[in-house]
Amino acid sequence: MSYVRTFLPWIVFAVLPSAQWQWAALVGLLVAAGVTVQQRRAGAGFDALIIELGSAAFFAVLTVIAFADPGSAVHDYSAALSSAVLALIAGVSLLIGRPFTLGIAKRSTPREVWGLKPFVRTNVVVTAVWTAAFAATAAALAFLAHGGDAHSTAATVVQIAGFAVPMVFTVRYVAAVQAKAGAR
Description:
By secondary structure, this protein is an all-alpha fold. It is 78% helix and 0% strand. Helix 2 packs antiparallel against helix 3, helix 4 packs antiparallel against helix 6 and helix 6 runs antiparallel to helix 7. The protein is globular. The two termini are 28 Å apart. 38% of the residues are buried.
């Protein structure tokens, strides 16, 4: 459930009609801000809100662009830009040694596990997979947008796969790591 909440602004943006992209960007911004505020009130630290904070910043900029020029060429590339920004956020979180999944995982893991190498390593691997998935999704969506298919069924399938594949990997990989640790 944490991942769905984390990516809710992006999901909402992806499912709202493309013809009203400025409103979809605004709703994405409001959802990102709402999720961030709700999670802070629930006690989440900023390390657990890396994607949410990046989402709010992205959707704030996109909202300004979309309302200033609804016919902007950015519209056709907005899905690709979304995935590219997620790849950037996730990649930077890896580079600075604070994988974004670490904060999410801490929400459901006992404090005494947080500093253990296997826990941190698992989150590095999971974040790397999310980063790669976001980057691949961005590239595929940019290719489709360049070909005039930014709002096609293929683009929708790519967006769904861009979230579903790393989510399935995360669930399976974490379960495998936990099973291996339990067998020791």
